[in-house]
Specification:
Elements (H helix, E strand, L loop, with lengths): L5 E7 L8 H20 L3 H18 L5 E7 L2 E4 L2 E4 L3 E7 L7 E6 L6 E5 L5 H8 L4 E2 L6 H8 L3
Parallel strand pairs: 5-8
Antiparallel strand pairs: 1-2, 2-3, 3-4, 5-6, 6-7
Length: 155
């Protein structure tokens, strides 16, 4: 059987969790608590930062994911309009047991944002595995613990 030259699909850019009104109320309550504590301690700059961060968090939490094109080709991995050539990637791991569905975690050779995660369509797993084999090292990778905690709380 021939290895395909490319596999492409579309998926949401991130896993979205619907937030109810009580989630936003909890964020507002925590931000208000920080503001009160900061004002009692005489730290107006931290109070202002708490207000701004609470508003920014609420706005970011309400953002819906866009549909992004993904592709795995013989040249590299494409996420949206960005191509990551195999020479810029160190390793990959395909996690078929993720509760959100199959995911591929890529380790890039860069300091800032070295881990890239992309959802995989179940029907293309074998084709993607065939393309990735021999291009870069397959190594066990997982998302950071803090990211898992944040997703648990709905971020």
């Amino acid at each position: 059987m021939d290895t395909p030259r490319a596999v492409s699909w579309e998926a949401p850019e991130f896993h979205y969790t619907e937030k109810k009104g009580d989630w936003y109320f909890a964020v507002a309550l925590i931000a208000a608590g920080c503001v009160v504590a900061a004002l009692l301690l005489g730290n107006t700059l931290f109070a202002l930062l708490s207000v701004i961060s609470g508003i920014a968090l609420a706005i970011a939490a309400g953002k819906r994911p866009q549909i992004v094109p993904f592709a795995v080709t013989v040249r590299g991995v494409r996420i949206g309009s960005e191509l990551y050539p195999f020479g810029h990637l160190a390793a990959y791991h395909i996690d078929e047991e993720d509760p959100r569905g199959p995911q591929m975690i890529l380790l890039a050779k860069r300091k800032f944002m070295p881990l890239l995660t992309m959802p995989l369509p179940a029907q293309y797993l074998d084709d993607i595995e065939d393309i990735m084999k021999g291009k870069i090292e397959e190594r066990y990778l997982e998302e950071p613990f803090l990211l898992k905690v944040l997703e648990y709380f709905g971020f």
